[in-house]
Amino acid sequence: MKRTSQLIAVLLLLMCLNSVAITQENSEKKEWWQAGWRGWPKENPMAKKLPLIKVSGNRFVNANGDTILFRGLAIGDPDKIADQQHWSKQYFEKVKEMGAMFVRIPVHPIAWRDRTPEGYFELLDQVVQWCTELDMYVIIDWHSIGNLGMELFQAPMYETSKKETYEFWRQIAFHFRGHNTVAFYEIFNEPTQFHGMLGSMTWSEWKKINEDIISLIRAYDKETIPLVAGFDWAYDLNPIRYEPINVEGIGYVTHPYPMKRKAPWPEKWEENFGFAAGRYPVIATEIGFGLRDGDITDENHYGPIIINFLENRSISWVAWVFDPDWHPSLFESWDTYKLTGSGEFFKKALHGEIIK
Questions:
Q1: How many whole angstroms separate alpha carbon 243 and alpha carbon 84?
Q2: Do the Cβ atoms of 145 and 165 come closer than 8 Å?
Q3: Does pTM top 0.70 for this prediction?
Q4: What are the chain's domains?
Q5: pLDDT tens by residue, 176-197
């Protein structure tokens, strides 16, 4: 009898605990209607350390109106670097030693989802803090490749949707508004239809998508400069000759890798994107090349030719990529940070030692 009473007491206790748990769970579920506006992010005392960058005609300028030609580096995805346990301020100090004035941060959609926006913002806040301390500006890049219009993409890591892309920029603009270090928002890394294998999209359709995103961004952040990429994996800006983005204060993007056209390059570059620099600010947010044994970066090599072409037209540029695992890598190993041949070249270029 005593044992039976004890069992009954235990069962009653478990029922009570379960009832409390259910009540708490139901209480939590009912709180959804109380969730409202989160309020603006807390003010960052470092937000105005670097001068605000603006667009003036076809140039980027600082608060004094001085023209700024940016030279920078792209890093690996912060999620990747953090997972590999190499995420630290030291990494950005190495970027600074290379001579970079600004840093391109590629955010892959798959990493954004897997880490969750809240978790990813922890990394982005560290990027912005470290870069501010090191006097380097930041480009945040939604690093997808494909046809956003039809939502068809080149590989699983680039899979996204228009809704997710809109929401990404809404959250980014909300979070970093007023922070001068975050100078640029690169709306979409590389638009391409992959010769029809990723469907079709007209320039007018792409133009409308970008104008909608810029309008959304500017509802939160009217200062950071949006960057719009052309077709052909962000190489070709010809459509803006007759149908430019109908928004003021933006820049355009090109990725003039050596394989995009056959040498000699400059005439084709001028036709495909160089002309745009006469009317708008342009950034080559990816340039790069690999070197094989015996290759020499002389005056006939792509490296000196592209740097001189860009800088003679006041086109800012970013070398891809300061990560030993992605091609063409600028250093060989996380253990040594020993530069590759192209890394040595771009270190000189970042310090202004290539331009004629």
A1: 44
A2: no
A3: yes
A4: 50-350 (3.20.20.80)
A5: 999 999 999 999 999 999 999 9
